[in-house]
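Feature request disguised as a bug report, sorry. It would help if multi-protein outputs had a clear separator. Right now it looks like this:
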Amino acid sequence: MKANDCASPTSICPEISNRVSFAVEGNIGVGKSTFLELIKSDETLTRLVDLHEEPVAQWQAVGGNPKHNMLNAFYSDSTRHAYTFQNYVFITRFLQHHNAAMNPKAPCCLLERSVFTDCCVFAKTVLEEGLMTDLEGAVYHSWFNPVLQTLPHLVPDAFVYLRASPQSCYRRLCIRSRTEEAAVGLDYLGKIHDKHEAWFVHGSMPATITPTGQAVSCGKLGEDLDGTSAVNVRVLDGKHSHAMLDGKTAIVVDCDAHLDNSGRALLVHELKVIFQQMGVFKC
């Protein structure tokens, strides 16, 4: 997937660039912040990648007012605030990703999570748990798809899935000790993990990268990952996530084994090799 293979600018927003965009996905506490710090610490990657971290600060202070902590409200009373939170999260992601597309600063845009995170994982989970009513779920989906169809540049060109067991995520969550996440338990992390696995593992096929930079499937749907590699390339099947993601590339990173100090150098090296093969940039 070379930069010039990306979707052309929309008629609505003709200024949008054709650079390559990646979304970093993964469970709560999987190590997204650590992963992004690795990107920042590498001279090649930091020069060629424009990073956009998740807008958590906006959720903790809606409109800049810390008294309006939407993140805390959701975790304190999920039934009351589930829809409001998911709605606000989408708006903040949408604005962040749209602004990133309108103001390119590097050949590659790296987003901490995407608008599909909620549709495929978090909103889906709260709906299944009964924290969002069927009516609220119907309202959510009634505007989600039309917005994406109108603004297709919100769809990332590829994904980086940071994969770790719920137990590992829970340990990291306890170390991070974010106040709003005190109520997040291992059971909830397990459900979020399962949604990510359905999206990026069970709903994908092993792939190889061709000399032209395209990721081409070379195995069966849901086939196990190569456990000997820090990084695996997959191709998504949109029927198991979202139609607009069909054929998108997913880079699955083993964070259980390679996000500690001893494995970080290998992880960064393998990522740079894959980015180079995809034609994102020359390392």
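(second protein starts here, but nothing in the output says so)
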Amino acid sequence: MLGLYLGSKSEALRQLEPILSVGTPTQKIIRFLPYREATKFLLAPDPVLTQKFSNQFSSGFGRHPFPDKAFQVMREFLEKAEGGTPASFFFLNWGGAVSRIAPRATAFFWRKAKFYVEWNSSWVKPSHAARNIALVRNTRKKLQPYIVGSDINVPDQGIKNSGPVYYRKNYARSKRV
């Protein structure tokens, strides 16, 4: 189990106690580090993807199954991504418990969607950055007839006035809290 706790050492240890008291851990490492060092520790190099690459992500929520035109947009995105590094679409089935909470009950609005979709392009060479970023953003524009919103956990700097896109009707209230 890995984790990052932002707070005092004593409070971190207090909150970890129930977890640490279960079973017999084979290894226990608790480090108190500045944030930057903590993220370097938690984000160790990937043993498979050894090259450091940059990413551009975007996301949305689907209220209806994608029609063929949306799949054509997805195919075009995957075919045009350049740089020999990962480009992908990621889908999560939505509904279930998340949909049983009213959209206005919490800051998270997108509870009535049928699925969540996220796409990304990555590159190693700086010369591939502009094209891949544009590809992700243009794909978002082309998917607009089929998606709503975006997930705040997948920040997309290409979204103008992003607050309402992430939080919809909950944005004004979220700013006050």
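Even a blank line would do. Unrelated, but nice: The chain has six helices and three strands.
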